[in-house]
């Protein structure tokens, strides 16, 4: 059992004061010859009548800090503060003086990581972005269509579109066959499709873009079983079946 002897002696008029008052919370009253009394309080209670819980009982001062009790004018309860050792600060002496992460500048549940000097970096929770996690991040909601990638969320959303798509959120299909932008070579015909296109090549070319010219004696050149004979690298002739030459 621990006792605390607190406060100045309190005089009362007439008789023994301890017969007229009662110390609270198990406190013990002591009479004095000058007609005053003192309440001896259990540890954890303070006040002239032990009527208040000692705020230092549950005050967890860190890093060697000590709790200081401040008594206020009744009926106000007492308050407490932590007296910190040099180099520490905060309500509980939990922070280092000059630490950019104390108090944490990161908002909305972000965690602060101290870098060199007074530099810091905030690790934001999902849905927030910005230096201090102060900006709402729309990228996790995937606003980009057709497989686009959200790369910037502030001040406006920016989507990086896949080939074949365009628009603020990649919502539009690119018509590669429109106007004079025909990608098909050697007279190939362009047919647009969603996110892509294809080329229909003439008989003398092949490849995805009809970019390959067929050799003069490719099998497709001579019809109805005719045989191709190369004259040179640019010209050819077809030898037809006899029944077709009549």
From TrEMBL:
PROSITE patterns hit by this protein: ASX_HYDROXYL, EGF_1, EGF_2, EGF_3, EGF_CA
Residue span, EGF-like domain:
14-51, 52-94, 97-134, 135-171, 173-211
Q: What molecular functions are annotated in GO for this chain?
A: calcium ion binding
The protein's location, in the record's own words, is: Secreted
Q: Which residues form the signal peptide?
A: 1-15
Specify the domain of life of the species encoding this protein: Eukaryota
Identify the Pfam families for this entry.
Answer: EGF (PF00008), EGF_CA (PF07645)
Q: Which InterPro entries match?
A: EGF, EGF-like_Ca-bd_dom, EGF-type_Asp/Asn_hydroxyl_site, EGF_Ca-bd_CS, NOTCH1_EGF-like, Notch_Cell-Fate_Det
Q: Which residues form a coiled coil?
A: none
Q: Which keywords does this Swiss-Prot/TrEMBL entry list? A: Calcium, Disulfide bond, EGF-like domain, Glycoprotein, Repeat, Secreted, Signal
Q: What pairs make up the disulfide bonds?
A: 41-50, 84-93, 124-133, 161-170, 201-210
Gene3D superfamilies reported in the protein's UniProt record: Laminin
Mind naming one GO cellular-component term on file for this protein? Answer: extracellular region
Record's SMART domains?
EGF, EGF_CA
Q: What is this protein called?
A: EGF-like domain-containing protein
């Amino acid at each position: 059992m621990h006792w605390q002897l607190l406060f100045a002696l309190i005089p009362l008029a007439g008789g023994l004061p301890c017969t007229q008052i009662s110390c609270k919370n198990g406190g013990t009253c002591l009479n004095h010859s000058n007609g005053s009394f003192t309440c001896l309080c259990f540890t954890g209670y303070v006040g002239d009548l032990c009527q208040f819980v000692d705020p230092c009982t549950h005050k967890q001062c860190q890093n060697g800090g000590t709790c200081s009790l401040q008594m206020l004018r009744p009926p106000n309860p007492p308050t407490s503060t932590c007296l910190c050792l040099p180099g520490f600060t905060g309500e509980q002496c939990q922070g280092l003086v000059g630490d950019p992460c104390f108090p944490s500048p990161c908002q909305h549940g972000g965690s602060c990581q101290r870098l060199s000097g007074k530099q810091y970096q905030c690790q934001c929770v999902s849905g927030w972005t910005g230096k201090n996690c102060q900006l709402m991040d729309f990228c996790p909601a995937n606003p980009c269509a057709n497989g686009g990638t959200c790369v910037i969320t502030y001040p406006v959303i920016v989507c990086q579109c896949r080939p074949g798509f365009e628009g603020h959120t990649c919502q539009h299909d690119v018509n590669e066959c429109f106007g004079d932008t025909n990608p098909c070579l050697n007279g190939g015909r362009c047919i647009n499709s969603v996110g892509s296109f294809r080329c229909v090549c003439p008989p003398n070319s092949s490849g995805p873009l009809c970019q390959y010219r067929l050799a003069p004696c490719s099998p497709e050149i001579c019809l109805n079983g005719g045989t191709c004979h190369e004259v040179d690298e640019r010209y050819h002739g077809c030898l037809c079946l006899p029944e077709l030459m009549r």
